[in-house]
Amino acid sequence: MTEKEAEEKNEQIVENRELNIFEALIPIIALIGMLAYNVFVFGDDALSGSNQFILLLGAAVAAIVGFFNKTSFELMMEEVAQNIKSTAGAILILLLVGALAGTWLVSGIIPTMIYYGMQILSPSIFLAACVVICAVISVATGSSWTTSATVGIALIGIANALGISLGMTAGAILSGAYFGDKLSPLSDTTNLAPAMAGTDLFTHIQYMLYTTVPSITVTLIVFIIIGLNIETTGPADSSAILASIDEAFTITPWLFIVPALVIFLIIKKTPPLIALLAGTLLGGIAALIVQPEIVAGLGGSSVLSLESGYKGIMNAITVDTAIETTNTNLNDLFASSGMAGMLGTIWLIICAMTFGGVMDAIGALARISRFMLGLFDSVFGLFASTVATCIGLNATASDQYLAIVVPGKMYAKAYRDKGLAPENLSRTLEDSGTVTSVLVPYNTCGAYQSGVLGVSVADYFVYAIFNWLSPFMTLIFAAFRIKIRSLAEAGKQ
Q1: CA 418, 423, 425, 428 torsion-angle sign
Q2: pTM for the complete prediction?
Q3: Which run of H or E residues covers position 321?
Q4: I need a surface site. Which of 145, 319, 348, 424 has the fewest CB within 10 A?
Q5: Are 397 and 403 in contact (CB under 8 A)?
Q6: Do residues 452 and 96 make contact, with C-beta atoms less than 8 angstroms apart?
Q7: Which residue has the higher pLDDT, 399 or 318?
Q8: pLDDT band (50, 70, 90) for residue 338
Q9: How big is the CA angle at 112 (ends 108 and 118), to the nearest 5 degrees?
Q10: Contact (Cβ atoms closer than 8 angstroms) between residue 290 and residue 108
Q11: How far is CA 348 from CA 101, 364, 450, in A?
Q12: Which residues contact 6 (CB under 8 A, 6 or more apart)?
């Protein structure tokens, strides 16, 4: 997102000066109460549909508040439409991720990654290795989403085969992916935060290192300790699993060409939609060449033909597919839902954007932000208010971009008035806005990551150590005035 686009998006934030803080909080309190009861009743099944409807009920409560404060229904629908429009790219990416997962399964790419990964990544180093691998890929690509959709899926498969907790694995994947996303100059949020705060990209990245490196270091230490004490349910001897994979698929290192090409495209700044579409098509071609019997079987034939090949690849892309092996433990692993499997996540995003759009239209988001700004007068209080606002917007507006744009524009003057350099603000926006978005189940990031990795936010929340530690780290630095640069110091640089 460019600075101009970010400013245009910020202009859409509506201020309703008739709305007081208690009225602004009514929809949030109602939403939290309804979600809590819904999760209590449905448990892990809450995301199957009931939470989505609760978000719409929350939007209805916000709309009622808006009606009493003279906000027109047309304005609410306009803001909802703008919110949903802003997620169009994310929705298309989700669909293509489902398609890519399907062709990468039937082509043997994911099984090949698991096959070789099981021989290299032992349980004792696996979680720490997940952090490092995903961090490197995310720095190179600038995208935590792409990292999860490629190597993240493979690492989840390896963890499943090794008997390692999928919640732990997803937490390690996301910790590494968001570390890389924060520091990569190719990342949209890494460019957006300094644009909102009023500093330049590389000053922002350099200044983020002060809080980001300690956070990722603590994360790695924790995962190393967990790895050394981990108990797995997977067999000590993996030869049986490897033999089953080898029997079901043609395993060859040549299949790594496809993911390598996709990563190369992203490094060359190819738009993610194009890169994922290319990966899907290349996976389909690889499936026809390397796994013709599997493709024919999915197409309802014992012999590969033009019709069975086309049907088999299209089934892999769009609907549920499963590859049977001689090992029952692997059968759930080698199953994909294609594009259809992403529809639940898309449904969740649309409902979340509806709630956020109505909250924006009635002026609740702006009113809550102004209230937070007025709570504190000290330097630490300013940082704490920024952190709380970013996290609050991730939970209410359900969008990490709004969690960066709104506080960025709102707090920029306050930081200047305190004599603080703008990089203090840009770093805090990333430490609390970017990384915590994945911890909210109905946020676009939380919905995406849980959908792609197949692990609920509740299961990986505790283990996404880097993500929830980052806002605490920035507050610790603010409390002890560590690396808090003043405007005078910045002028000397």
Answers
A1: negative
A2: 0.71
A3: strand 321-322
A4: 319
A5: yes
A6: no
A7: 318
A8: confident
A9: 145
A10: yes
A11: 20, 21, 11
A12: 192, 195, 196, 401, 405
Token pair for residue 334? 């080698």
From the number of C-beta atoms within 10 Å of its C-beta (0-12, 13-18, 19+), residue 43 rates as: exposed
- Type of residue numbered 229: N
Q: Which residues contact 329 (CB under 8 A, 6 or more apart)?
A: 161, 241
Burial 268-295 (b: 16+ CB within 10 A, else e): eeeebeebbebbbbbbbebbbebbbebb
pLDDT at 140: 63
Q: First-to-last CA distance in the chain?
A: 28
Is the pLDDT assigned to residue 381 strictly greater than 60? yes
Is residue 187 within 8 Å of residue 170, measured between CB atoms? no
Q: In 235-363, where does DSSP find H-type helix?
A: 239-248, 257-267, 272-290, 292-298, 306-318, 328-331, 343-361
Residues 398-434 pLDDT 10s:
778 778 877 887 788 788 888 899 999 999 999 999 9
Q: 250 near 107, Cβ under 8 Å?
A: no
**How far are the Cα atoms of 118, 292, 450 from residue 162, in angstroms, in the given order?**
7, 28, 20
- The answer to whether 317 and 102 are in contact (CB under 8 A) is yes
Burial class of residue 306 (count of CB atoms within 10 Å of its CB; 0-12, 13-18, 19+) = exposed
What whole-number distance in Å separates Cα of residue 406 and Cα of residue 251? 49
Q: Which residues contact 126 (CB under 8 A, 6 or more apart)?
A: 158, 159, 162, 164, 169, 227
Burial per residue of 212-232, b for 16 or more beta-carbon CB atoms within 10 angstroms, e otherwise: bebbbeebbebbeebbeebee
CB count in 10 Å sphere of residue 29:
12
Cα 234 to chain centroid distance, Å, stands at 28
pLDDT, one tens digit per residue, over 238-257 is 677 778 888 888 999 999 89
d(CA 35, CA 332): 30
Q: How far apart are CA 18 and CA 38, in angstroms?
A: 32
Element (H, E) at 336: strand 335-336
Task: Tokens for 214, please give them.
Answer: 């300690």
Name beta bridge partners: 420: 486
- Are the beta carbons of 487 and 420 closer than 8 angstroms? yes
